[in-house]
Every structure is written in C-alpha cells, then in structure tokens.
C-alpha cells in the first residue's frame, strides 16, 4: 500500500468571492435624463444587468451623501451635516469615529484588495483634516482628490504623498487619470484574491469642464422643459416660492449651457466604463465581478424656477441612477423597489460573504436578493408603446429617447406616441413586489452665513446662497437648522 502526501493550497481551490466595482459620479440626475448621454454604460451595465428606477440618496448634498455611502448610515448617525469642516466633512471627529467603520475596512479585513481613485469627501486633504498624509482606513491603493470636484489643476494623495496635476489634457484630465489608474490596478490583481475598486469621478459637477474632443457635442440640446421647469412653486417652502418666475432670459440660456456642459463631461465617464469593462474581460474577471454605477445626489436646472444646484427635497435632487451587473443578475431587467444609498455598503459586504452580525451595524439593508430575483424587462421608449391611455400627457411626457439614447422633444403626442417616454405609464405596468422598503429618509442640516453679499434683505437670517443672485438671491437658500423628510 502506497500513501501519497501532497501539499494542497486551500486558498487555490476555494471559491473566490466576487469582485466589486463601484463607479460613483457627482451630481448626476435622473429627472433630467442625466444617464442618457452614456450609451456605452447603458449597453455594458444596464443592458447587461439591472436598472433600479427608485434609487434615492440619504441627503441632497455631496459630503453627507458620500458619507452615507461609505458608512451605510443615515446623516443623523454619521453626523456629516454639510460640505464644511464645521459640518463634520472629513473632520478629525469623522476620522476618529465613522470613517473607521466604513465598508472598505470590513472588506479589507475579510481578504479584499481595495482601490480608490477620485473624489472622496469635499474637505479631504485640508490641513485641518490631516492633509494628504491622511489615508483613510480600509484602502490598499489610495488615490484621493484633495478638495472638491475639478478637472484640472488639482492634487491627489497617492498613498499619502502629494501628486500635483496641471492643465495638460493628456496628463491631467481627472476622469482620464482615474481611468488609467483603474486599468493599472486591474493589471496587478491576483486571480486568487477578490478586489473592491471605487472610481469616483468629478463628472458632472461644476465647473463642468469636458474633455476637448467633446466640446462641440450636444450643441442642439437644451435643458428638458419638464413639467416643473420655469414655473412658480405653489404650496412649496417659502424660499422656493420667492424665486422669480419666469426666469430671466439670460438665466434660461445659462441653464441650457450648463445642461450641455454637464452631458459633455459624462462622455469621458462613458469611455472609462468601457475601458474598465474591457480590462475586466481581458483579465478573465468580468463574469465574477459586480459593477455598480450610481451618483451621490441629483441636480436641478430650472425646476420651480430654481436655476441650478441641488440641496432640495424634490425628486430631481434626491433620485439618482443605479445600474448593476454581475453574477446571477439577469440582463436587461428593471427593479422598481425603493433602495437607498445607505443600502450599498451592506450589499457590498453581503456579496463579500461577510456575516450578518456585521451587516446589522448598518442603517441600510442588503439588496443582493433583489439582484437575483426575476423582475420586469428594462422598459425603453419603444417598449412603452401602447401602455398609455388616450389622455393628454403632462409636459414631462413630451420627450422621447432616440436610438442613440439622447433626449428629443416630441413634435406632437399623437405622432410620437411610440417613442415618447411616459413615466406614469411605466409605473402602471405590472410590478413584481417584494416589499423591500416602504419609504426613504432624506436629511439635510443646511449651511448658513450671516452676511450674504448682494442680498442684504436676507442678511442675519441663517441662510446661505450659492447660485444665481438674479433669482432673488435664493436659488439655493438653506436653513441653518435640521430638515428631514420621509419620502
């Protein structure tokens, strides 16, 4: 009898947990068709997976919302109330508490190799926040933008060391830099160890600087004239009701220009998505990788005569895209269940097979089961044909999506019935109800100053103004005390 001994590498034969990629845009809306200038993303993520039609953020502002994504907590728990140091954005208090419990920490401890590139939190890298030397826990490969979204002339913290960038497109355009760093990271990953990669682009945040090759795109487009566009907000908050209606012509022109430039910035993100998916395929990891595409908050352009910004509790500022592809996700499907940004962290940990006791620490809930459950086929414009009744549509329904995924106005409702998108009609279709969530909680604590230059009538009222003084100085006025709502 012969006995043969062999050294067996258990790790080599164990089933590796799926990889995870999170692509996070900045200020990308749903209500104004923010996802439609991205045909590659639609094809490679939405068509290859699931589109969530009711994805909401925890707060309509960057730093609170991003903090919720990282921690899986509502604002009242992580206490990042606005984009300032005094509002706890990347503050010493944040770093000593909530940041230590962010989801990358758990992924890293459980064997994931982690990578980050792009915008982290608005005050990251400031001297009060430890400067570029501070590398948040949980990240093996760190490439964090110092400060808020820009496209040129910025500094990255690369493993805690400053990396300066100028204004040369080939070397410095931030979305492309993130793209290149992501591909380089994927070239280094091991087939035996799962990875998590977060790509946080500046698009489509101000200053809306597109790559030079896209400067002439969308010249014939204008901001969608939704049913809320350039009308007076009746029965709204008194600040919203104070706006000038109709907006001055030059303000409308500015809104249209912002719309075009926002779309242009997203074309580089579309190229990045294509590059990442192609690289995942080339290294043999695409079929074992979940790819999530979403945004930190929405945006408005003329709704209720508010020229531009976010910070409001209306759908245009709190509803964002969410598209997911990955193992077990049926292609070309739609989920209408209510999900939130706080649900991303527990979902990532669930994918990583991290125990329920850890998931219980989050306010959010894992929606992994929604990804692998049968849902409606994705409804594009042509598939909605015949679902509408004969009543006249509201103004929102006077748009359709052409074959390239671009928004166009209907010449008439009757003539364009087969192509016009009717959100109400889509919502009347049969729904597979799982009862995942019945409501969403949105919170915003506001920012304020005592003196508002150019707006003396609003001094010493605890308000803040960030955009368009012509709109009676209140296109983005905010309370200095907490606001929240159940939606």
Automatic annotation (TrEMBL):
The keyword Ribonucleoprotein does not apply. Residues 18-350 form the Sulfatase N-terminal domain. GO terms for biological process: glycosaminoglycan metabolic process. InterPro entries: Alkaline_phosphatase_core_sf, GlcNAc_6-SO4ase, Sulfatase_CS, Sulfatase_N. The modification 3-oxoalanine (Cys) is found at residue 62. Gene3D superfamilies: Alkaline Phosphatase, subunit A. Belongs to the sulfatase family. This is N-acetylglucosamine-6-sulfatase.
